[in-house]
Design brief:
Helix content: 10-25%
Largest sheet: 3 strands, mixed
Order of helices and strands: EEEH
Number of helices: 1
Oligomer: single chain
Structural class: alpha+beta
Strand content: 25-35%
């Protein structure tokens, strides 16, 4: 599932919004355990609730973990195109 605002290691209740053949989309209902990569988000406007910006979801994640996920994303895309 793709969960907007979710991070690997987050645990909790999620609401399924849509299911495709091989993947689905869900939203966070309530987190019971936060990923160890999470840090306090320095932006007072961040969040996914109505009236919040939601534009910078990576700010609440340790920089090292951001880099690791971005590396995985690039490698995945390069493998899919056959360039890696």
């Amino acid at each position: 599932f793709f969960v907007r605002g979710g991070w690997p290691g987050d645990e909790g209740e999620f609401e399924v919004e849509k299911i495709e053949k091989k993947y689905g989309f869900a939203r966070i209902h309530q987190l019971s355990r936060f990923s160890e990569a999470r840090i306090e988000n320095p932006c007072a406007h961040s969040g996914l609730d109505p009236g919040k910006c939601g534009g910078c979801p990576w700010l609440g994640i340790r920089y090292e973990d951001q880099l690791a996920q971005k590396q995985k994303m690039v490698e995945y895309l390069l493998k899919r195109t056959g360039a890696y």
